[in-house]
Specification:
Helix content is 78%, strand content 0%. Helix 1 runs antiparallel to helix 2 and helix 9 packs antiparallel against helix 19. It has 425 residues and is an all-alpha fold. The protein has 21 helices and no strands. The two termini are 41 Å apart. The chain is globular, with a radius of gyration of 22 Å. It has one domain.
């Protein structure tokens, strides 16, 4: 059966370049194997229904709704203002403020796309108004947006946790330190480039400006604290936290008087559209994963790998190389859903910590969102900045190195991803 599956996957890979929706191609590949292998076709709707009937996946539409509510309210402006008074007076200060604001926003949105398209538009305009060139503004916005899915809450980690049957709470905790390391590494790179390029610096704010910015941002700053505190104290689960986050985002919008009831149908419709695409991906990936499992291709691949690579580090390095290449050509969640059934079993057989492996996978694919030719975050920031895609790609190149350095750090030092989950067990 593995030879049949290999043939189907070869056709599927060629079909990827046809421009058809990837969830359609995944479903067709899974259905084709089911038919050729003479498996009862009732399995197809059963797998679709089982994939959709998942309690942890309830978090996905809630976090998507929260991101839409945050982008529709004035919270992004207040976050950027607070970040600017904190670090904006350093040389290259608005680059630092951009990164700091992304860290704060990451604790609410959990999405690189939401970060780039929401607060990113405001950040790029502010940097241009302050004298930064558009390429630098777009590049640092794209690079800092990758922090969003690493610091909890994280939509990609929810998807990974469901697909790999790994604790979502542990994945959230495991991503916190790497996310902060990403911010620190990007700020270090900005410090180097700001002196080399003579980036502008502003005057330090006085105490009253700091206080006004802080008080204005308090409701937004409380969101990550409420979510993280509630999950860690056991008051609510990561899935329930998503509903709390969406409600809190709505209350913030009403409090700031930036969201009107007339806006809610549009916001809900945006959420439903995005959730529909996500669920189509999850359900079609479940069918393809079932087909792969029945073909025993992952098991044979895993047995070959564990026989060839006896070292955890060697396997993780190989996975990094594979995912960095895949991330250049495929959207992150799609790639994750396709590769999890293949990559996770050998990792578990080698004794790699599931939390470490999950964070490594997600971080790899987030780096892929800012690498051409299919870097979705690059496309968004290029559109927001009204710049050619190739110029944004070139400007983003220096900021890839800090992110790769953090990726290598969590690959070789498991404690960076496992310490916090172990503390809260």
């Amino acid at each position: 059966m593995s030879s049949i599956m290999l043939g189907i996957l070869a056709v599927w890979f060629v079909a990827l370049f046809s421009g058809a929706p990837i969830y359609v191609l995944m479903a067709l590949a899974g259905a084709a194997f089911t038919y050729v292998a003479d498996i009862n076709l009732i399995v197809i709707p059963q797998k679709f229904a089982k994939a959709a009937d998942s309690f942890p996946l309830l978090a996905a539409p809630m976090y998507i709704l929260m991101g839409s509510l945050m982008n529709s309210s004035g919270v992004t402006l207040r976050i950027l203002r607070f970040a600017t008074v904190c670090v904006g007076w350093w040389r290259g200060g608005l680059c630092h403020a951009n990164i700091f604001a992304s860290v704060i926003f990451a604790g609410m949105s959990g999405s690189a796309v939401a970060d780039a398209g929401g607060i990113g538009a405001i950040e790029i305009k502010a940097m241009r108004d302050a004298g930064y060139d558009g390429e630098t503004a777009a590049a640092i916005t794209a690079a800092s947006a990758t922090i969003g899915p690493i610091i909890p809450p994280s939509l990609p980690m929810i998807i990974y946790g469901v697909a790999a049957e790994t604790s979502i709470g542990n994945l959230f905790l495991g991503g916190l330190l790497p996310g902060l390391l990403m911010a620190g590494a990007l700020m270090l790179m900005v410090s180097v480039l700001s002196r080399r390029r003579n980036m502008p610096a502003s005057n330090a704010p006085d105490a009253s400006e700091v206080w006004q910015a802080f008080t204005g941002a308090i409701p937004a700053l409380m969101c990550p604290i409420i979510l993280f505190g509630g999950m860690m104290s056991g008051f609510f689960t990561p899935t329930e936290a998503a509903a709390v986050a969406a409600l809190y985002a709505l209350l913030i919008g009403v409090f700031y008087r930036d969201i009107k009831f007339a806006d809610l149908p549009r916001i809900v419709l945006e959420t439903v559209e995005t959730t529909g695409v996500l669920m189509a991906l999850v359900m079609s990936a479940a069918l393809l994963g079932y087909a792969l499992s029945m073909s025993r291709l992952p098991q044979e691949f895993g047995a070959w790998l564990t026989g060839t690579l006896s070292s955890k580090i060697a396997y993780l390095v190989m996975v990094n190389v594979i995912l960095l290449i895949v991330g250049c050509f495929m959207e992150a969640i799609s790639a994750m859903l396709i590769l999890i059934p293949i990559l996770v079993p050998p990792a578990m057989a080698l004794g790699i910590d599931p939390t470490q492996f999950g964070v490594v996978v997600v971080l790899n694919l987030m780096v892929g969102t800012i690498t051409p030719p299919v870097g979705i975050v690059l496309f968004i920031t290029a559109r927001v900045a009204n710049l050619p895609f190739d110029r944004v790609c070139k400007a983003t190149w220096p900021f890839l190195w800090p992110l790769v350095a953090v990726l290598l750090a969590i690959t070789f030092v498991p404690a960076l991803t496992t310490t916090l989950p172990n503390l809260f067990r």
